[in-house]
Amino acid sequence: MMTMSRRALLGSALAMPALAQSGFPNRPIRLIVPWLAGAAADSQLRGLAPLASRHLGQSIIIENKAGASGMLGAQTVAAEARGDGYMLTQMHGTNFRMPAMMARAPYTIPDDFSWIIQLVGYSYGVVVRSDSPWHTWQEFEAHVKANPGKVSFGTAGVGTTQHITMEQVARARGLEWLHVPFRGGGDDVAALMANQLNAVAASTLWGELVQAGNLRLLVTFGVERIKRFANAPTLRECGIDIAQTSPYGLVGPKGMDAGVIRVLHDAFKAALFDAEHQPVLDRLDMPRTYLNSADYAAAAPRLLAENTAAVQALGLRM
After folding, report:
1. Could you tell me the domains of the chain?
2. Model pTM?
3. Residue range 219-251, pLDDT digits in tens
4. Could you identify which of 113, 122, 199, 209 might form a hypothetical disulfide with 203, taking C-beta atoms 3.0 to 4.6 angstroms apart as the criterion?
């Protein structure tokens, strides 16, 4: 019977995945999604979680905690004393803005979190009902300018990328409109369909309604046009020098073990680039914006500074 040398055994142990070395995870992982079920991020993360579970050998349980403009996930994770890797949340753009909008923020970026992986960005646009009088962004903008403070638009909440972008557009173009915040998950689009709003600025949860002819897409927020809606111009094409994709990722409580972070990163990266995940991204019009753990942690202070500057320039407060 062949026996292995001590050196060979050591080499074999070093080659073993961190999963086997650490024993992590040995129970299900809780992933807090700070939006209503059905929101774009919720749909993407629900598509991602089962694929990551295959690599982790444990299930990932999605828990929706909507409200407070999507802050509840970050707030919950920041308050979690056990950085053992069994509680994660989505870290999105609004979380970088809220500290600048509050007298006392419930968390500090980047120190209160362990930065695991950046995943994807959003595709955003402004939609109106198909029976509205506006067929182009220029027509809508002209109407807003002629009726200051009378045109309403909905978003997923105060301080969200949609809200910030619309306020930046208003400042750039001398517009005055009425912002109506919702909780995310498409309730703003439902209110538009019920004729309770004039417009909605949102990620592409409106996609099927636009394709079905119920809603009309006037403009999108990205650097390039959305492939699925190639006829709709970007803000830049309409003469407004603003582009937004608002990338997001996953974080855990501060102080997580480096080996645990590596296990989680590797599992979610494999899931992100899995061919089975591509249809989810296509349906949600989400571009990959992958960053590894170290690069994501390094990017966090810059993202905080950029978002703080945007909030302060607009004078936004909760």
Report:
1. 28-121+246-314 (3.40.190.150), 124-238 (3.40.190.10)
2. 0.83
3. 999 999 999 999 999 999 999 999 988 999 999
4. 122
